[in-house]
Amino acid sequence: MKFFLLIGFILPYFVATLAGDGLKIPDKWHTVEFNHFWPADEVVSYMEEVAQENPDQVRVITARYSRELRPINAVKISSDHFANRPVVFIEAGLRPRDWAGHMVAIRVMHEFFSHYYNYLDVLEEIDIVIMPVSNPDGYEFSRNENRAWTKNRQLNVGSDCVGVSVYHNFGVGFYVTPDPCEDHFSGPRAMSEQESRSVDHILQTFNVIAYFSLQAGGARAGYGSNILYPFGYRYTVPQNENDLFIFGDALSAVFREAGGRRYSVGPAHNLWYDPHGNSLDYASEERNITFPYTIEMPYFGEHGYDIVENEIEPLVESTLPGFIFIVNHFAGRIF
Fold first, then answer.
1. Which DSSP state fits 162?
2. For residue 234, what are the contacts with CB-CB under 8 A and spacing of at least 6?
3. Strand 207-216 to strand 71-77: parallel, antiparallel, or no bridges (unpaired)?
4. Among 32, 101, 135, 257, which lies 20 to 30 A Cα-Cα from 186?
5. What's the helix, strand, coil split of the chain in %, to 5?
6. Confidence of residue 148 (pLDDT cuts 50, 70, 90)
7. pTM of the model
8. Residue, of 20 and 180, whose pLDDT is higher
């Protein structure tokens, strides 16, 4: 109950953050807008140029390079890069057609850049790592060739069909799907792809206590927006399910208060019909992340994932308070 009683006190704090001082932002990024879908190279440039201007606060981590030689980058936001602080890790794009997740991650990253000094107390307790485009080849192919694309652009031995579904390539609940031409082709073996290895690089390198994978509901969009915790591949839950549900429910209340949408909370197996090899279960079972979640964005367009440009800004602004809530919570600043 105390989670809900605090919502009325938390939201005014979120509003106040919008007026704070930020880092040194290069001139070309003084006006950042969210009425178009950012190309992958634009995201990389933004991250790298802010990091160059603010090396003590921002560090770009190139976890791997994709098959088409795009960097798979994460940005670490910290008040002391030498401290081994707990990390909140936000990732988007394993399924590249989920552009809503990409844009929310970019907006969250921009918030911590542009209002950095409002979060100094938070950054004394935790670091924030954001990987806004975890599958850049797939994202660019989705942007330019096939809007519904779900895979990376890996070549498959013995097949003319290109791509592995990174979403299904993680090493918990993994099995090899037989047809490289299908959207859910999981690859020749677990963790075979640079994109899944990039996410795992962050999970292994840092003291990650909370992992949020941002996606769209896709074929499941009829169920609405969701905050999901393990497990997807089996009908059980982690031992700390009560804590997972309580935090997810509080986050859902913040999202609802800020944007008017209700996010359902529960184990992924209640909703996922294709859960094999997902990053949520991998983070929990293989890397022992205490608070792993997948956040499925609201329904858009005909298929659930096909957000259009005039829907970007309402989405990113209505979800931003939830991510401010997340970092304050894990820094011990809320409850």
1. B
2. 173, 269
3. unpaired
4. 101
5. 40, 15, 40
6. very high
7. 0.92
8. 180
